[in-house]
Hints:
The structure holds 2 protein chains of 2 kinds.
Chain A: H1 4-13, H2 33-58, H3 63-83, H4 91-110, H5 116-133, H6 137-158, H7 165-185, H8 187-191, H9 196-212, H10 240-257, H11 261-281, H12 286-310, H13 314-317
Helix pairs in contact in A: 2-4, 3-4, 4-5, 5-6, 6-7, 6-9, 7-9, 7-10, 9-10, 9-11, 10-11
Chain B: H1 7-16, H2 21-30, H3 37-66, H4 73-93, H5 99-123, H6 129-147, H7 150-170, H8 176-181, H9 188-208, H10 216-241, H11 244-264, H12 269-289, H13 294-328
Amino acid sequence: xxxxxxxxxxxxxxxxxxxxxxxxxxxxxxxxxxxxxxxxxxxxxxxxxxxxxxxxxxxxxxxxxxxxxxxxxxxxxxxxxxxxxxxxxxxxxxxxxxxxxxxxxxxxxxxxxxxxxxxxxxxxxxxxxxxxxxxxxxxxxxxxxxxxxxxxxxxxxxxxxxxxxxxxxxxxxxxxxxxxxxxxxxxxxxxxxxxxxxxxxxxxxxxxxxxxxxxxxxxxxxxxxxxxxxxxxxxxxxxxxxxxxxxxxxxxxxxxxxxxxxxxxxxxxxxxxxxxxxxxxxxxxxxxxxxxxxxxxxxxxxxxxxxxxxxxxxxxxx
Amino acid sequence: xxxxxxxxxxxxxxxxxxxxxxxxxxxxxxxxxxxxxxxxxxxxxxxxxxxxxxxxxxxxxxxxxxxxxxxxxxxxxxxxxxxxxxxxxxxxxxxxxxxxxxxxxxxxxxxxxxxxxxxxxxxxxxxxxxxxxxxxxxxxxxxxxxxxxxxxxxxxxxxxxxxxxxxxxxxxxxxxxxxxxxxxxxxxxxxxxxxxxxxxxxxxxxxxxxxxxxxxxxxxxxxxxxxxxxxxxxxxxxxxxxxxxxxxxxxxxxxxxxxxxxxxxxxxxxxxxxxxxxxxxxxxxxxxxxxxxxxxxxxxxxxxxxxxxxxxxxxxxxxxxxxxxxxxx
Lengths: 318, 329
């Protein structure tokens, strides 16, 4: 079974679709992950250039002016996506306009309240809005990814100082892990309903967010490498990057369940990134980190060997 | 791992034929789109074993970096050397491609780097840091080859490229590479393009001579490194140096890789990398050439990005579909 055409024939032969059912049209929006990545990054950058251009031309100063510009841009993006539903030609233009619009709307809200909570909640609300409204898979996937990260920061700033970091971590990531798990397990159910238009981008975005977003919920976290916490005495905070690696590996398993090599590769890269951050950033000495990694390595190997011994096919393939 | 029919195509089929849950489940079974429980456990087991080996390797590196004062110099060397010897011994007893042998050879490769780092740390040799990685890449090559494992190959490529990146980025005036290239009046763009060329040569070599230890994803990794350096060299060439030689070298690399990919008609990834490089370098070039008002610059750059990425996406999508259909036929 290799192509859509052959699969359609098989469905017909098994009586799953009518014998005289028309041939499903080929969708031009289907593209490999690296093409989506190239276009996504280019669209983002173009959106920022576009916003700078509009800012220089119109020089908006009030929150209202930003909001009007943002709303007009989002409306234009929606129209372009809608008009170009089954092709890709206007997608990039729509993506750039949408990004510029999102920034403008967000700027209108946070202009007078530049707090972490305000930025995070606004970003989350804008991304959820885009996820629901924009009739395009890549736009929805990007929105789901950024909504995931915005959610982590929103939770963090909302309960700052009120929750212990472990509880905060659980409250941040457990709902997202549950959402990803539910979407993976219930894939046939939502594929058979109109939810598929939202569920697929949400699943992809959440898996990407789980891979990379762990750093947003960690104590002492900064988004770039730094050395401010080197040499601290051991504390349990030192284990947080390992939790981020765990999130990335959970995402890798989800990617495997939906057989996505691109998502799997991203999750593995993210796990390695978290490991390198562990070396530079986190709250204990390198000696303790070494002990942690050696212990974790031994436990992981033991678990892997144990699973292999339970697999009846493993011996044959070895 | 990836089924031939993609998720987006399955979604489209389910929508077009208004399939119910049972029919969707059957369709997913037909294309083997959902792994069985046994496959899932096997994947988990493999993940855990690889993660275990990488964690042990990281633990060893962290230990050397910790420079623990309770161990005397002799003790530190003895410990890392014992690990190295033990790993090599295990790899001999259970030679790769057995999993144990692969893991041991990989750990021996990491231990080689740790030993070199410990040597530099202990005796303050004055060597540039790129020399550590370069020596590691050279001395570790036999172990990476012996491991017969894609993870070990990818790690070796990473170590080599870190060495090249440090050499090109810091442009030190000492060490092995500098003794070769230092007296030849090379500009930074030339050095960077040389690093790109080395990666490209590796990619071409493994495209022609296929090995299990250098699968598609590792070759893509090599190509990404090549065009990472290529993009860097191209940006230097069009901004600070106006270097025609580096520009021509990049152009030759782009044409060569594109021609090869078009001839093989199997994978569009090389074309995607080439197009990404072209988009970035041309965007920077455009930024340096435009002299009219600021507003116009930003609009033109946005439009250029939109136009080139749209064209790239369109070409790559069409080629993907066409080449997949040819393979299926």
